[in-house]
Amino acid sequence: MDRKVLSHQAVDRALRILICTDCHEEFVFTAEAQAYFAEKGYVDDLKRCKSCHAAHKQAERCHVPSRPSA
Ligand SMILES: [Zn+2]
Description:
By secondary structure, the chain is an alpha+beta fold. It has one domain (about 10-60). About 40% of the residues lie in helices and about 10% in strands. The chain has a two-stranded antiparallel sheet with strand order 1-2. The chain binds zinc ion. Zinc ion (ZN) binds near residues 20, 48 and 49.
């Protein structure tokens, strides 16, 4: 048995394991990210992992009236 239990409460507060709504992979919502979110005024939990979040953000930015050249 390891001693991870020792700081379980602190770890529980610092890190949160969430499931990405896009790829359904587990990802870590770090204390830093939580602080960043709070700073930005976001009240909801992070819903996407880092890569999906970036992709989603980019998709929003690309949401322009002009059609894609595909
Ligand atoms: Zn994801």
